[in-house]
Amino acid sequence: MSDPFKQLHLAMNQFAAERDWDQFHSPKNLAMALTVEAAELQECFQWLTEAQSKDLDEAQLAAVRDEIADVQLYLIRLAGKLGVDIEQACWEKMEKNAKKYPAEQVKGSAKKYTHYENGDV
């Protein structure tokens, strides 16, 4: 893990240990909690137009920032439980995505990669 993730991982471990919450933090439970936090992030944008979602007021932005932090903290905790290096996993996934979505084929398109594998462009 890169240093910022490592520092947050250690802080999350200490936070959970001080509260005796490690007993609840199985990978399954952390993954489930992560989806709840992602839904709370979505809720911040519910009923907003595209334009409004790009121009949040301070209170809206503060709520979004908190939910992004919750999502990231659960990801860090889950990765730590499973021994996943988040930064390395992200770089590897970027490489996979570059192969799935060659820029010259997908530029300006929102189609899923399976459309390109089947020759649909």
Please indicate the count of domains.
2
Q: What's the CATH H-level superfamily name of the largest domain?
A: MazG-like
| CATH domain fold name of the largest domain | Helix Hairpins
* CATH architecture label of the largest domain: Orthogonal Bundle
Order of helical and strand elements: HHHHHHH
Structural class: mainly alpha
Helix segment tally = 7
Number of strands: 0
Report the uncertain regions. none
Pfam family, one: MazG-like
GO molecular function, one term: nucleoside triphosphate diphosphatase activity
InterPro entries: dCTP_Pyrophosphatase (IPR052555), DCTPP (IPR025984)
GO biological process, one term: nucleoside triphosphate catabolic process
